[in-house]
Specification:
About 30% of the residues lie in helices and about 25% in strands. Strands 1-12-7-4-2-3 form a six-stranded parallel beta sheet. Strands 8-5-6-9 form a four-stranded mixed beta sheet, with helices on one face. It has a single domain (about 5-175), classed as Rossmann fold. It contains seven helices and twelve strands. The model has no long low-confidence stretch (mean pLDDT about 90).
Length: about 190
């Protein structure tokens, strides 16, 4: 087994252990079919480079889905799903890392009940130590950016340790592994 295959396996296990659903697809077309079956309603689709390159808005609309790509603050009140790319992921914790300075990225990852994240398996790194170089590159590009670390669906607990899922964000996190989606760690 190659190192990258080991990272994918470790990432999948860690992400599933914290409540994420990790699904591998042979291509983007199959991932979009999955998304159409599981979105449950309107999809918030913020603007991100790999999404534009693959024509996600048009392809989702062709699949019969209602896609909202503008005025996401308003759409967040009714959209049931958000779709984003991922800059990279950490195998040891099952964490997604997203450069989310654009408010629409933050809205799509926090307001809907379901967050779908498209991740090229080549972007899964061993751990946070390996992530130092791409993190530095992100901060050199824009020193005032937001970086989101997403590990599983939203969860919170009260003082009595009663765990509740989805209070401060999505109840479901679907990580869609799609080879060839984008292997650039600085591109979402």
């Amino acid at each position: 087994m190659t190192d990258q295959a080991q990272y994918v396996a470790a990432f999948s296990t860690a992400a599933e252990n914290v409540g994420s659903r990790v699904v591998s697809f042979p291509d983007l077309e199959q991932a979009l079919k999955y998304l159409a079956q599981h979105a449950g309603g309107t999809i918030m689709l913020p603007d991100f480079p790999s999404g534009q390159r693959h024509g996600l808005a048009e392809r989702l609309e062709q699949a019969g889905l209602e896609v909202v790509s503008s005025d996401l603050r308003e759409a967040g009140q009714s959209a049931l799903a958000g779709l984003t790319g991922v800059n990279f992921a950490l195998a040891d914790t099952g964490t997604l890392v997203l450069e989310s300075t654009d408010e629409d990225i933050r809205l799509a990852t926090t307001l809907p009940e379901r967050h779908f994240a498209l991740l090229d398996p080549q972007k899964i790194l061993a751990d946070s130590l390996v992530a130092v170089a791409p993190m530095r590159a992100m901060h050199q590009r824009d020193s005032r950016n937001y970086i989101a670390y997403i590990t599983g669906p939203s969860r919170t607990a009260d003082i009595e340790r009663v765990l509740t899922i989805g209070v401060h964000g999505p109840k479901e996190l679907h990580i869609l592994l799609v080879p060839g989606f984008s292997d650039d760690l600085l591109e979402m």
